[in-house]
Specification:
The structure holds two protein chains of two kinds.
Chain A (H helix, E strand, L loop, with lengths): L9 E4 L5 H13 L4 E4 L16 E5 L14 E4 L15 E4 L12 E7 L13 E6 L15 E4 L15 E4 L10 E4 L3 H13 L9 E5 L31 H13 L4 E2 L13 E3 L20 E3 L8 E3 L3 E3 L9 H13 L4 E2 L7 H6 L3 E5 L8 H5 L3 E5 L11 E2 L6 H7 L7 E2 L10 H14 L6 E6 L3 H10 L4 E5 L8 E2 H6 L4 H14 L8 E4 L5 H10 L3 E4 L1 H6 L22 H4 L4 H25 L13 E3 L2 H7 L6 H16 L20 H11 L6 H12 L17 E3 L20 E4 L19 E4 L3 E4 L6 H14 L2 E4 L16 E6 L11 E4 L20 H5 L9 E6 L4 H10 L4 E5 L9 H4 L5 H12 L7 E5 L5 H9 L4 E4 L1 H6 L3 E3 L2 E3 L10 H25 L13 E3 L2 H7 L14
Parallel strand pairs in A: 1-2, 2-3, 3-4, 4-5, 5-6, 6-7, 7-8, 8-9, 16-26, 17-18, 18-19, 19-22, 22-23, 23-25, 25-26, 31-32, 31-38, 32-33, 33-34, 34-35, 35-36, 36-37, 37-38
Antiparallel strand pairs in A: 9-11, 10-11, 12-24, 13-27, 14-15, 20-21, 28-41, 29-30, 39-40
Chain B lengths: L1 E8 L11 H11 L7 E7 L8 E7 L1 H9 L4 H20 L3 E8 L2 E7 L4 H8 L5 E5 L2 E7 L2 H7 L9 E7 L14 E2 L7 E8 L2 H10 L9 H14 L4 H11 L2 E8 L3 E6 L8 E4 L3 E5 L2 H7 L7 E2 L5 E6 L8 E2 L3
Antiparallel strand pairs in B: 1-8, 1-14, 2-7, 2-8, 3-5, 3-6, 4-5, 9-10, 10-11, 11-12, 12-16, 13-14, 13-15, 16-17
Helix pairs in contact in B: 1-9, 2-3, 6-7, 7-8
Chain lengths: ~1050, ~325
């Protein structure tokens, strides 16, 4: 290739020089302010990435991915085309592309100008914040996707969904707009707008005579409507564990809140339920410490280097411990500074979290990881260069599938400016990176980051537990230096409460899955894993390292050391101790110096514990700890970790400890009589231990021994043999790397539900062919309701309207109201439950015949006198051609009912997990036999007839998440009873529900209607959020394979695998 | 987690393009190798074996694959391979397939045979016991663990200069790294149809169970095989390729860009998020598809190319000797 080269410039020939060298040379010339000519680029990637000098670069040909990315100030001219992500994250400067640009041109642009003379690919300007992106030709779909600011000028036509989910900024289109994105609107450009565009175009010698349309954000989706009410904390003992009731206080509160706000709920902190954790594991030896002959901790080697797998400078940690990523925004600036100070005092490493690097923290922290998230908020080349490691956030344990979230109450002007986004929005960052759409793109992004910092820094990955066994392989193959792996117990500043509770796997499982995954590809021990998620002390750290982690990370525990009371209101900005707030008077409650010292003391106590345990187990190096040092105390922990199950270690060690404790002056064990915290994973005892650690000098050996003794105590097993299978003990696996998450807060996910006998693969209609349509009822949500046959009339009327408005259905012996009474235009769906004495109604959309579980003589339906109406069921008759026919089965009747239903061509099998759906409020007095769902599916499968009958389940469903679990178990829709009664203001009183009937006190019909609609909306969002986390665009595509159980009873009852277990998969 | 490649010469006129079809596909793969270094594969559409209406068949030799993995060359392994080949011969003979020619290349057995009956019927009768990689008048699928250039040498890919082909390199995600989980996948039972794919099908198990209930068989846990089997199923109930592509947009969930090739065409389908990349380039004589422009640029060094990418929720196909080439939208 020949090119005219100016004599004074320097020439780089990419046909002979590798890009890594070339970028070093480019930066060298740049520093000397010398212009650069690049020949033979042939679409090579990463050209001029990370260039921070105002020099001219001419590229004679086409450039590949990320040309001029992560730069500040250069003038780059590309003669021909560019591939993905030209000018990615540029701060200032100019890039002119002579030909076409691939996808995501100008992604995350933070300033400067990009001009594309040809056409521009999809998602141009995604999450851009400032500067101008100009396309002379046509733009492909979704230009300005989730943009936060800046200007896009398209002289030609724009493709579909322009301005999709934009939060701010302007898009001008000179040609036609194929379609607008959601929350985007076309307005008239002002004179000054046009003048400014005119000036811009003249500067670049572009002439344009057409007329512009201006696209801006419509602002309907920037903030949540109604805020959540302030709530009192409910101790976890009341809602989790073996002894909590199904319809406990927390469940009821959740239903009521949703009936007020009409959406999914948001909160901070981590999962609040019991999950198997490090407390269920013990050391194989009884570690007794003798105060008279203390172990010599100073001899234990703790120093850990991490991150040099690809030649970058490793992090140098005085012990195998890092501080978890927590953003400025989630935390106040003062807390970030204190974390920086504490990390330096203890010789470990701090992390920026989302939203950019805070200069004062940078100055205080000796080692600081810069975290790069999907929105690229505050991300830039200068902060990358002054960091000690880079971290790509894929997902996090607390909320796999979701991006960062910061409510408007905490998004101050300063923080908004630092992040480059509009002030005053409820920020929900994208759940995927613009340029990491799988393991194949990940490697390209990693290489761009490496090029930008001259391969000097480690690049790590933040990964939430889920499909970890697969994801970790990608991380290894893509050359990641280390992985920060985060389990379900990890905390967050804000996220959907259902995702926080039910998406992800426990921390111990995440680690086991990661280790198994690496072993499967013979990479065991070759990829360092930093384990996070509920780690509280040196005891947990020692167990993590023994199980195979290289180091651990701590977040929530650091905050507890600094005064966190565990009120779980982190997202609201009302933190009473000034940690997770930006409100000045609350922020002032936090004393940087005092709390930095407290955190430092906590870290030093952590170090002391880790060393003491290592030493007591007979090792001189912390990394000599191994699985041989551990035993499992509970069947769950044994199953998840494959450690030997030795419950006797618990009794033995706790007995000894109890004695020691009572002899000592330490009365910590019963220091406070106040109620338990709201989180089973940070109970009062954990908080006490962490607090004590943060207030005790490292050389106060006696106190350290006492604290350690306390920390070594195991908890009572929350999964006792009498805890039945419970929907709470089922979690979802989120998409992350091997699968792509569907953005749970914005992308489409269908909840439409078709109730019909058979689910079919799409049948292709051809001209001379017709299908006989089987009866079918279509509803908008997979929700049905039951139990209101004898409810007060105004309740029934309100529910009937809500059911019609939301496109759901009612299941009962009677319709909610007479069909003529319904005011809403929508037809109300009613499935009639037909008992022996009932007459099937022609008005019903479905007739579901009840069966008598006491009668096992083989007859299907018998009344109380034993007279069997078998005739009906032998020849089920539709009273109109589109009427569905169904049978009800419970665990006793299933073996007879199911074959009969299939033989006789019934459309629906109602799976009743209670003792009888027609009994009033039966869900209050019944246990739920989940095995009937499993048995129905397994029987159908064994007959090769799965999906040949529509399954609808009833019993104990409390939320959209419970329905998502039902759908994933292959049901097509689910029936709520008590949950809707609570939403409608009903009070649980023993075995019944009471509605206020006194007209002075009870809610009026309109308020009841709103409550029902709100709750349905919120629950439908929950189901769709879960489905999207699992990578589905339709809730009915949830599969049993998307779920895991965390208790053995649940695993068996539902036929689900445990979150980690002995099962090895195929040969790799 | 991969890169896909496709190349179709529109007509049989003499070409200006100076690489062989095999070379070009290999070069596209090599240029995008960072996207998937685990395994590579090609679906090549060769001249039909005119004489006696022979068909091409290729089978995976599991014993051979094992020796390849363990890098053993002991006698016992060789005899295992011999036994496996004998078994295939015997099976084919019992099904009235007359083997005319056979050769062992890599861990596969390539067979030229004469067979008068129905391929679908034939496949159904042996797919539970043997591992057919491809069957067709023209189609020959070659896939193995390793890098494309090295495999191209091993399997003489660069000598292939036929009308069209598709190819793939893979970064394994949820199924293992083995020759049989490499792409392309043959639409088992359907002569001359092959698929490559970049992305993930997230309703894999639901669709797999549905297809299995329809009598379709699976050999691996790979989601691309699901696409191939899905298309095969739709065609077995009378759909044409275009209909099948369109229906797949409704039935498959997740993010994907996939290519399907037949005796005389290449088609594609793209999910509603259009997250997985796919770039196409067309000139008078050919259509080139790659996951990245850098792949296409390999074939035209130093040239500025007018490339474009398909829209979300769209499908389309190119047929040889036909100039109509248009993207079509699925039903949103």
């Amino acid at each position: 290739m020949s090119a005219t080269i100016e004599p004074s410039t320097s020439v780089i020939d990419l046909s002979v020089m590798p890009i890594k060298t070339a970028n070093e040379v480019i930066r060298g010339y740049g520093a000397a302010h010398q212009d650069i000519e690049i020949i033979n680029p042939d679409a090579k990637h990463y050209i001029a990435v990370g260039l921070i000098n105002p020099v001219n670069v001419s590229i004679h040909g086409s450039a590949g991915y990320f040309c001029g990315g992560l730069s500040d100030g250069p003038y780059i001219e590309v003669k021909n085309n560019v591939s993905w992500g030209v000018g990615d994250n540029m701060l200032s400067g100019t890039i002119v592309v002579g030909g076409n640009a691939g996808a995501i041109a100008g992604e995350a642009l933070r300033g400067g100008n990009i001009v594309i003379k040809g056409n521009m690919g999809s998602r141009a300007g995604q999450v851009m914040k400032k500067g101008t992106l100009c396309c002379v030709g046509n733009s492909s779909f979704m230009a300005g996707y989730m943009m936060y600011g800046g200007r896009i000028i398209i002289l030609g036509n724009s493709g579909e969904k322009v301005g999709e989910n934009m939060a701010s900024g302007e898009i001008y289109v000179g040609g036609t707009i194929q379609s607008l994105g959601s929350d985007a609107v076309v307005v008239e450009p002002s004179d000054s707008d046009l003048k400014s565009i005119d000036e811009f175009l003249r500067n670049f010698g572009i002439s344009f005579n057409g007329k512009f349309q201006k696209v801006v954000c419509d602002g309907k989706d920037l903030t949540y409507g109604k805020p959540e009410p302030n709530l009192k904390r409910i101790p976890f003992t009341k809602f989790s564990g073996t002894n909590s009731s199904w319809w406990n206080e927390k469940v009821q509160e959740d239903i009521r809140v949703k009936s007020q706000i009409g959406r999914y709920r948001v909160r901070g902190y981590g999962t609040s339920r019991h999950v198997p954790n490090f407390n269920d594991i013990a050391f194989k030896q009884d570690i007794s410490f003798d105060l008279n002959a203390p172990v010599n901790n100073s001899k234990v080697e703790m120093r850990t280097f991490i991150g040099s797998r690809n030649g970058g400078k490793a992090l140098d940690l005085s012990m195998p411990l890092l501080i978890a990523p927590m953003s400025l925004g989630a935390l106040s600036p003062k807390v970030k500074v204190a974390l920086g100070i504490a990390s330096t005092l203890s010789g470990i490493c701090e992390n920026t979290g989302e939203g950019g690097m805070y200069s004062i923290e940078r100055a205080e922290a000796r080692q600081l990881i810069a975290q790069c998230l999907s929105g690229r908020l505050g991300w830039n080349i200068h902060d990358m260069r002054r960091s000690d490691a880079l971290e790509l956030y894929i997902s996090q344990g607390a909320k796999p599938g979701l991006g960062g979230q910061l409510m408007a109450a905490k998004l101050t002007k300063e923080i908004a400016e630092m992040r480059g986004i509009p002030h005053g929005m409820d920020l929900r960052s994208p759940s995927r990176h613009p340029d990491i759409l799988g393991g194949d793109d990940l490697i390209m992004k990693v290489l761009e980051l490496r090029e930008a910092v001259g391969w000097r820094l480690p690049v790590s990955l933040k990964l939430g537990g889920g499909r970890t066994r697969d994801d970790i392989k990608i991380a290894y193959k893509d050359g990641i230096d280390f992985v920060e792996l985060d389990g379900l117990q990890g905390g967050t500043g804000a996220g959907s409460s259902e995702v926080i509770e039910y998406v992800g796997i426990p921390t111990i499982s995440a680690l086991m899955e990661a280790i198994d995954g690496l072993d499967e590809i013979d990479a065991g021990g070759k990829l360092p894993i930093v384990l996070m998620g509920g780690i509280q002390s040196g005891v947990d750290a020692a167990k993590s390292i023994a199980l195979g982690a290289t180091a651990v990370g701590i977040g929530t525990s650091m905050l507890i050391a600094a005064g966190c009371t565990g009120c779980m209101q982190c997202s609201s900005g009302k933190c009473p101790v000034g940690l997770t707030t930006q409100t000045p008077e609350l922020v002032d409650r936090f004393d940087i110096d005092r709390e930095a010292i407290n955190m430092h003391l906590y870290l030093e106590s952590f170090r002391w514990q880790l060393a003491a345990i290592t030493s007591a187990l007979g090792h001189s190096k912390v990394h000599e700890l191994s699985k041989d040092d551990l035993v499992a105390l509970t069947p769950e922990a044994a199953a998840l970790t494959r450690l030997p199950y030795k419950p006797e270690y618990k009794e033995f060690s706790n007995k000894n400890r109890g004695k020691k404790l009572s002899n000592s002056s330490d009365s910590m064990a019963d220091s406070s009589k106040d109620s338990e915290t709201g989180s089973a994973n940070f109970p009062k005892s954990s908080r006490d231990i962490i607090r004590r650690m943060s207030r005790t000098a490292a050389d106060d050996i006696q106190s350290q021994y006492h604290i350690l003794d306390r920390a070594l105590q195991s908890r009572d097993n929350p999964f006792l043999p009498d805890r039945p299978a419970h929907l709470d003990d089922v979690v979802f696996l989120s998409a992350a790397l091997t699968r792509l998450v569907i953005d749970p807060y914005r992308e489409d996910c269908s909840t439409k539900t078709k109730i019909t006998r058979q689910v079919e693969i799409t049948q292709i209609k051809r001209a001379n062919q017709s299908f006989s349509a089987s009866p079918a009822v279509e509803i908008e949500q997979p929700f049905l309701f039951t139990g209101f046959d004898t409810a007060p009339a105004h309740i029934k009327r309100a529910l009937a309207r809500a059911v019609a408005t939301c496109g759901c259905g009612y299941v009962g012996r009677l319709p909610l109201v007479d069909k003529n009474e319904i005011k809403s235009g929508r037809k109300s769906v009613w499935f009639q439950l037909v008992m022996a004495e009932d007459t099937p109604s022609v008005e019903a959309d479905a007739l579901i015949y009840m069966t008598n579980s006491n009668d096992m003589t083989g007859s299907i339906c018998a009344d109380k006198n034993g007279i069997c109406k078998e005739v009906n069921l032998q020849n089920p008759k539709r009273l109109h051609s589109n009427q569905l026919l169904g049978l009800c089965a419970d665990s006793k009747t299933l073996p007879t009912v199911l074959p009969h239903a299939l033989n006789k061509g019934f459309d629906i099998l109602l799976i009743d997990t209670t003792s009888g759906i027609t009994k009033p409020w039966v869900e209050l007095k019944s246990n739920f036999d989940l095995t009937v769902i499993r048995d129905a599916i397994f029987r159908l499968r064994s007959m090769n007839m799965e999906e040949e009958i529509c399954l609808i389940n009833f019993g104990g469903l409390r939320s959209g998440t419970d329905v998502a679990k039902s759908l994933a178990l292959n049901c097509n829709a689910a029936i709520f009873g008590v949950a809707m009664a609570i939403a409608l203001g009903g009070t649980v009183n023993g075995n019944t529900i009471e509605f206020l009937t006194d007209s002075n006190q009870s809610l009026d019909e309109e308020s009841l209607y709103n409550a029902a609609v709100n709750w349905i909306k919120g629950s439908a969002q929950e189901a769709a959020i879960i489905a999207r986390c699992a990578g589905k665009t339709n809730v009915h595509n949830l599969e049993p394979e998307d779920m895991r159980a965390i208790s053995i009873a649940t695993s068996e009852a539902l036929g689900l695998s445990l979150t980690s277990g002995a099962v090895k998969r195929q040969r790799f | 987690m991969c890169a896909i490649a496709g190349l179709l010469f529109k007509h049989d006129l003499s070409r200006n393009f100076n690489m062989t079809t095999g070379e070009a596909l290999t070069e596209i793969l090599d240029a995008t190798l960072h996207r998937g270094p685990d395994s590579a594969g090609w679906a090549l559409y060769k001249e039909p074996l005119k004489k006696d209406n022979l068909i091409r068949m290729r089978f995976l030799l599991t014993a051979k694959e094992l020796t390849q993995i363990q890098k053993q060359e002991d006698v016992e392994a060789e005899s295992k391979v011999e036994r496996e080949i004998k078994k295939i011969r015997k099976q084919l003979e019992s099904l009235n397939v007359t083997v005319i020619d056979e050769a062992v290349i890599g861990c596969t057995l390539s067979v030229h045979a004469s067979y008068k009956g129905d391929i679908l019927h034939l496949t159904r009768s042996f797919e539970k016991e043997m591992l057919p990689i491809s069957i067709g008048e023209s189609l020959d699928i070659i896939k193995d663990v390793g890098h494309p250039r090295e495999l191209a040498r091993k399997y003489s890919i660069n000598n292939f200069n036929g009308s069209h082909g598709i190819a793939h390199i893979r970064l394994a995600t949820e199924s293992g790294v083995r020759p049989d989980t490499a792409h392309p996948f043959w639409a088992c039972g359907f002569s001359d149809i092959a698929t490559v794919h970049n992305g993930q099908i997230t309703n894999y198990w639901i669709m797999r169970r549905r297809l299995e209930r329809k009598g379709m068989a699976f050999q691996t846990h790979n989601d691309t095989e699901l696409i191939a089997v899905y298309l095969a199923y739709q065609m077995s109930v009378g759909a044409d390729l275009e209909d099948a592509l369109k229906a797949s947009l409704d039935d498959l969930d997740g993010t994907f860009s996939y290519l399907v090739a037949t005796k005389d065409s290449i088609g594609y389908a793209k999910d509603k998020l259009a997250a997985k990349p796919m770039v196409k380039y067309e000139n008078d004589e050919m259509i080139v598809i790659s996951s990245e422009e850098v792949g296409i640029n390999r074939l035209f060094p130093g040239k500025a190319l007018e490339t474009n990418e398909p829209a979300p929720l769209s499908y389309g196909f190119w047929r040889r000797n036909l100039h109509q080439i248009k993207d079509k939208k699925g039903d949103a």
